[in-house]
## 1
Amino acid sequence: MFKGVIFDLDGTLVNSLGDITNAINTVLKKHNFPTLSIQECQSFIGHGVRDLVVKALPQENQNEEWINRCFNEMLAVYQDNCTIKTAMYPNISNLLDELTARKLKLAVFSNKADKLTKKVVKAVFPKWNFEVVEGLKLEALKKPNPTVALEISEKLAIPTEQLIFVGDTDVDILTAKKANMYPVGVDWGYRTKEELILSGAKYILEDPLDLIKIL
């Protein structure tokens, strides 16, 4: 019997593509680098902001100096503009209401920087109680490293096998499997259904409320 749900943030609970694309393109324009289309940005998301910056930079500028410079600039721009277009996907609010009514504990684990993860959750989800909200604090601990997922399990006081892990990328599914949690993918996010199945998702949600069927 499941007692809690850990959610990825971007591409799972919220569509943040507009704000992320605008932020990285602001930095790229500043240095006269080619900007990204929404589709390109979408394909780069999932491994944290630093990874996005590396992939967005021209190949000849993918060195530590440029990466660090643009990474810090991206964080500064995005921090001030991370909740302008970002919003919940349809039916997420209904799912959270249902999970809350069933007394399941809720958490968020994202590869977005910790401060930004907490800011977005606070702004977009003021009505719901996420008992633990964790973003990226150390590059070495980003998903699919299961360390933080295991720490969330301890903080929630729920055994890993009684936790559902919901995400939109192979990174999320691999994290769930490594942490011995039930891996669930969503088909409205930033990756394909096929990628999630290949990664080992036990269930693919076509609508947020499909999660109730698992319970």
## 2
Amino acid sequence: MKVSLFITCLGDVFYVNAGKATVELLERFGCEVDFPETQTCCGQPTYNSGYHKNTKAAARNMIQTFEHSEYVVSPSGSCAYMFHEYEALFGDEPEWQVKAKALKEKTYELTQFLTEVLNIEDTGAEFHAKATYHTSCHMTRLLGVKEAPLKLLSHVKGLEMVELPNRHDCCGFGGTFSIKMPKISEQMVDEKVEHIEETEADILIGADGGCLMNIGGRISRKNKPVKVMHIAEILNSRGEA
């Protein structure tokens, strides 16, 4: 099975270890992974800000980049979902719309791919810690990936999972929302950090770089003793905490 890695901007710059863990997981379960070097931003920041015409250039590039891929897998539910938006984006361009639909149908978030395509529930991971999981908005509400991350985490040896109170609440990142509405965003992430503290967890696990960056940044500024990790790192772990 051939898989093309869609690393995403944040994954490429800030969450390199999550990218490495993603590749190692896929290869362990028999996938041949390649990395198309022409990939760039998926266009989500401009798209979510209403600049749809400006987004088309990025979208065309990504469609062409992954056109010949068998599967496209990303360690980000938010960015994976953006590929689902391309079909509507090219509603007035039938030729590109067909290509966009083809890309959508072969694109998966990592945990979604592991459970739905590879039929994996136990990655053989071991990680000794008390942890809680943040459900990102795009991945949960739009992409519809809800159970896969928790199912995979439930099989990690030594990992004690504690439910995060109000886990479906947004962390306040929301892409450009956190830039345009910083005061509101700050209040939202502060509330999220308070809920994380209530769990008394050592680790906050997430599957979207944007959320992890936003929550992790606030945790750091508040000097809270909670480590933030991408789910790929946990699922690829072999006993380290």
